[in-house]
Amino acid sequence: MHPMLKPALRRAWRNLQCVQFGATPAHAVVVGPVDTTTGSLLALFDGTRGLDPLRAEARALGLPDGRLEALLDRLAEAGLLEDAVAGGPALEALREGGGFDRLRADLGSLSVVHREPGGAARRLAARRGMRVQVRGAGRVGAGIAALLSASGVGRVEVRDGDRVEPWDVAPGGLPADAVGERRDAAARRLVGRSAPGGRVARSVRDGRAAGSEPGLSLVVVAPRDGLAAYAPDPVPAGEWVATGTPHLYAGVIEATGVVGPLVLPGGTACAGCGELERSDRDPAWPRMLAQWRSGRRGRVPACDQGLAAAVAGLAAAHAVSFLDGELPASTGARWEVSLPLLEWRSERMSPHAGCPCGAGRRPEGVRASGPVKGQDTMAG
Fold first, then answer.
1. Which of 75, 139, 221, 249 could connect to 308 by a Cys-Cys bridge, CB 3.0–4.6 Å?
2. Interior CA angle at 102 toward 100 and 104, to 5°?
């Protein structure tokens, strides 16, 4: 281990004895009181020294044996310590494959969120072995696919048909020179360009790829028709529920953006649960839904550029948080935002006892929040 105080957290002395790591309340930690000797030792935690050289430095400062280890343990418990050589072979392969510099900012963010030393490097390396499928290559879906690839997800597949239309073009999504091309081919190039190091990533039309494939870690449903994200059809989701594949909905409909729910099959409300629950509240809902799904659709969907970018960004962030082992706020919930005020609001999605997915028959639903992080105080 090469101990290093997390460089992503800004430092500021609150007074002559206490130093604060981190500016925001979600991750800030105060260390104190810090005497002169301890402050000198903290300055050596820069990732360039292993434990033996640090022990020698501690003895030179007059500290008794064991003081260094005790300090490191307390820093690690407070979430302030990083291991500069963590990550193992997987992260080393990422470095050798090129593009690691593009992920340094992501690594810094992970180090803030995941408190244990080496946790950030291990999660970043793990993303490389994950496979995510994005259903839809419009303004929202293409943006999500590009962001997932840029975040280091090793396999990002995109399913969509037809050809790119001028209104599909968006910054960070499909480019203007892709108009007229098949959406799957254009999305494949977008994903490949977005990948750190230019790793090969594929878009598929039929959901099948030759050879051995890792299982899907997540499906992101981002249809060009925003209705299919706002009121998702349970039929296409049946396969994911049956196979236990997590899936997240995202889209834009009529100047309203939606992110979620993230469905954990058998644990949280699925598309069928949502449809049954809405029908219980509004008896006219099934009749209207049938008309909307089967009726003649407008040629050009209403999808504001800024709103589409906001939805794609939030959905990608929720997806990556889930891939990193967390339960983001979209788990079992839908987040909505509407023009022109753009105030995000959330709605819990309750499992329905009559849905065949089984989530409504569980004694307890899955909690939709990760661990709560606050400000800690630690004596130095």
1. 139
2. 75
What separation in angstroms does the CA of 270 have from each of 192, 204, 251, 262, 275? 31, 25, 16, 8, 9
Q: Which amino acid is at 75?
A: L
The structural domains of the chain, with segments of one domain joined by +, span 3-84, 88-124, 129-361
**Model-level pTM?**
0.88
CA distances (Å), origin 307, targets 257, 260, 323, 345: 7, 15, 24, 15
225: pLDDT strictly greater than 80: yes
**CATH no. for 129-361:** 3.40.50.720
CA atoms lying within 13 Å on the CB side of residue 307: 23
Distance (Å) of CA 33 to CA 14, 38, 227, 350: 11, 9, 57, 48
Lowest mean pLDDT, pick from 33-47, 195-209, 348-362 = 195-209
Burial of 188 (0-12, 13-18, 19+ CB in 10 A): buried
Contact 146, 222 (CB under 8 A): no
Give the span between the Cα atoms of 305 and 222, in whole angstroms: 15
The residue to which tokens 């090969």 are assigned: 200
The CATH architecture that domain 3-84 belongs to is Alpha-Beta Complex (3.90)
pLDDT per position as a tens digit, 111-145: 999 989 889 988 999 999 999 999 999 999 999 99
3-state secondary structure of 73: helix
Which amino acid, one-letter code, is at 330?
A: S
β-partners of residue 348 are 333
Asked if residue 20 has pLDDT above 70, the reply is yes
Return the DSSP state at 46: B
